[in-house]
Amino acid sequence: METGRKEDYLEALDSIIEKKGYAQVRDISKLLKVGPSSVTEMFQKLTKAGYINYEKYGGVTLTPKGRKIAKETKKKHDMLFHFLMILGINEKIADEDACKIEHDLNPKTLDRLTKFVEFIEKKEEIPRWLEHFNYFFETGDYIECNPSNDDKCPVHGIRKKRKKVNK
Ligand code: MN
């Protein structure tokens, strides 16, 4: 059983179980966009490996071991999603790519990225250098991050002028 696939299933199972208490083949089939026979096959593997339990009403729930992996994967997913959003990637792509990257990163990389996202989100407004980066992305022009030089700054200088116009 491939690790990434296993983690995606457990993550999907957890999100459905949180809503309705258990998950059925059709829920996962819809969410992960895979055929019901593949889901059934994966459910059997996950049961055998001790990640899920079959319930009498035809649904499955997570074992503690399965839930642990689901929560860890979700945490990585959310962090990577935020990281990609910070970089300016749109929501849909950020979500899809977070799901691809989440399985293969070294814990050291994860730790550093987590702290990076936390650091950026400490402040409510977008950091100046990140606004400069967005400008760089769009125009290719690099702006030195220097508040005393704001008048000449095409990002922050223009914004100041705009504020004045609004008054
Ligand atoms: Mn994934």
Please tell me about this protein's structure:
- The chain folds into three domains: 3-68, Orthogonal Bundle (Arc Repressor Mutant, subunit A); 74-121, Orthogonal Bundle (Diphtheria Toxin Repressor, domain 2), CATH 1.10.60; 128-166, no CATH class.
- Helices cover 66% and strands 4% of the residues.
- It has eight helices and two strands; from the N terminus they run αααββααααα.
- It has helices spanning 3-20, 25-32, 36-48, 64-86, 91-101, 107-121, 128-139, 156-166; strands spanning 52-54, 60-62.
- The longest helix has 23 residues, at 64-86.
Produce a short descriptive summary.
The protein has 167 residues and is mainly alpha-helical. The protein is 66% helix and 4% strand. Strand 1 (52-54) and strand 2 (60-62) form a beta hairpin.
Structural class of the helices, strands and pairings?
A: mainly alpha
Q: Main sheet, how many strands, which sense, barrel? A: 2 strands, antiparallel
CATH topology term of the largest domain: Arc Repressor Mutant, subunit A
For CATH, the homologous superfamily of the largest domain is named as Winged helix-like DNA-binding domain superfamily/Winged helix DNA-binding domain
State the low-pLDDT regions, or none. Answer: none
Task: Quote the distance from N terminus to C terminus.
Answer: 63 Å
Query: Helix-strand pattern, N to C?
Result: HHHEEHHHHH
User: What's the β-strand tally?
Assistant: 2
Globally, the shape reads elongated
* Fraction of residues in helix: 55-70%
Hetero compounds: manganese (II) ion
CATH architectural type of the largest domain: Orthogonal Bundle
Q: In which order are the strands of the major sheet placed?
A: 1-2
User: How confident overall, as mean pLDDT?
Assistant: 91
Give the percentage of residues in beta strands.
under 5%
- Total helices: the number is 8
Given this structure, which CATH class of the largest domain is correct? Mainly Alpha
Q: What is the CA-atom radius of gyration, in angstroms?
A: 22 Å
The number of domains = 3
